[in-house]
Each structure stands twice: as structure tokens, then as C-alpha cells.
Fold this protein.
Amino acid sequence: MNNSDHIQRASVPDPALGLYLHVPFCSTSCDFCGFYQIQSDRKGILSYIDGVKRELELVDTGSRKLDTMFWGGGTPGLLPAKDMLTVGACITDTLGMPAEEWTVEMAPSSVKRDKLEALKEAGVTRISMGIQSLNERLLDALGRQHSLKQIHKAYELIREVGFKSVNVDLIFAIPTQSEQEWRQDVREAIGLQPDHLSTYCLTFEEDTALFIKLQQGKVSIDPDREARFYTAIWEEAELGGFRQYEISNYAKPGHECLHNTNTWRMQEWIGIGPSASSQWNGSRHTNTPDLKEWLDGLERGERGLVDRVELSDGLLLEDSLIFGLRMNEGVDLRQLHHRFGRDVESLPLLRKLVEEGKAVREGDRLALTPEGRMLADAVGEELLGELS
């Protein structure tokens, strides 16, 4: 590293700081879900809230305050309204109110007016509702526990309470789902008039009901079919007035999810709760994915971190490129050079992507074309090979 690199890197401001809260409670397990979750009872919820308080006491951010906060799960909406206020106050009293955005995931069946009003009172700015599909047959195939009636009622309530941004999540490439059914799902979701749309290709996570069906040969993976579904959502979202800003995410102007964009840009975030992951204070780590073990560790004054990896400029550069290229804006190569002290502009793979029409270069910025974004996972694997 030359001296000019050192000066430029030293002048880079503190990264954005986010907080991810994992609420592990679910009323039932969906067939596709691989996240840590348990059924809720009052004793478990109270012990969880106590654990959140204890873990926050072990987090020292100095004078830094939160930029964004995201509550996921599990089903955060299973917490009673008063508990939502308690947990929210624990965090904001310790780390301050998020300066830019506060998102909470909600399942349609958990949406109740008192809970929404509590979240609005606490300062939540974005509700993300996982509807997954607007087709009853496909909802049943996913093992979801909500109905179309619940989806529409929940969405109306969310709008009535009045949050700055509302997001809906959809899943595609569900077994037996046709391309026409997928397009209809997207059109009906857009018809709700959300501010943001997230669409995820169905993945087969280990230890889920769908993964077992895959092993048994009852369902299969078809990459060509998945590619057609990707193309369909890109077309339908654009027709519906949404701008794609990341492979799986679309937004109306000003409604992009800042917590996620900061994550993809390899900023910093603190994970609170069992199985929550962090990238903070020089390492990447995950809390133990077990409520009792997490609580036992906190009793000893320990956060119970597992899968701890020390962060290096090399690792952060790799991930900044891989996740940055998933965003439509791409990456600023000179900025990455200044931040991590390595010149990536001359990487053979990046030149090859441009030559093959899979990426475009405008000044210092490199972005994948639609053809390149379709191959983003493969591009990421090749980048790992070149950078290692």
C-alpha cells in the first residue's frame, strides 16, 4: 500500500451502523423457512425480552448511534403490543432512535391494529409484510397459515395506521407454479400499491419440509424455469412503475430499504437475539441459534458468539464486490480502492464481463447488465477465485 492510499483510506468516514433484532417466535413453521424459530408462550417471550436487555448491556458503540434498524424472525408481529414498545424502548434508550429507517417484518396473520399503532408510536417507519403469494393453492403449497382475506385486511390496516413505507414479499418458482401464475401474483401485489416489492426465488434450506421433498424427488430445481421467472418479474415490476435496485428488490422513488443497501455495501450492523448475525467491531459473528443457550450465555455476561470470523480488508473487498454487483447501481471501483487499498480495476474478470456484454463501465462505476445480473451468483464465485 502506498502512502497516498493510506491517507485516502484514513479519511473514509465511519460506516453506517445498523441493528438487526431477531425475534424467534412463530406460531408454526412454514415448509420453506430455514431461519431459527420456536413456538411462543408468555414465559418464553418474557425471558427473550430480558435477554434483549442483557445483550444490549454488553454492546458498546461509544458515541455512535444507529442509522437503521430491522426486526426480523421468526414473526416479530407475534409479540404483544406492550412488549413491542418495551423492546423498542430498550434499544432506543441504549443506542438512540435510528436516524434513517426502522423496519419491522409482519406476517398477515399477526397484523393487529394495536400492534401497528404501538410500532408507529415507537418510531417504526417501514412495515415489510411477507405475503409470499396471492394464490390460495400456492400458499397451501408453501405451508403458509394465512389466507387471501387476511392479506388484504392486514394491508388495509397497515395503510390506515400510516407508515412511511410498506413492503410486500413474494416467493417464486414454487413447485407447480406456472409463469402465468407468477405474473398474476406480481400484478395483484402491485395492485395493492405498496412502496416496495421484494421477490425471492424459492430456496431449499436444509432441515425444512421442502428440502425433504427435494431429497425424496417429489420436487425438483429447474434453473431455466427460474430464469424465466426472473425475467417475468423484471418486466412486470417495470410496467407497474417500480425501479429495480437490487436483483430481488424493487421500489418507488425514495422507498429503497436503506438497512439492506447498507448491508450490501458492507457497512456495520449489530445482531441482537438468538441466531442474529453481526458485522461489527472488527469481526463477523452469529449469536448461538438457541434461545436457552443464548440466555445462559448472557447470564454469564457472554453474547454466545459462534462462527466468528475476523474481518480483513480482503474479505470485505470480496463481499463489497459480490454484493455490490447485485445492485443495479453497481460498484465504484475507485472508492473500493480507497477503502480497501487494492486496485480492482484491472481484474481480468471485470474486463471480461464488459467485453461479453455482462457489465457496463461508466467512469469509475461498474454495473452488471440484465444478462449479467441473471448470472450474479456465478460471477460472485469467479470473483472469489480471482481475489483469493
Residues 1-10, 30-35, 210-214 have pLDDT under 50 and may be disordered. DSSP finds 16 helices and 15 strands in the chain.
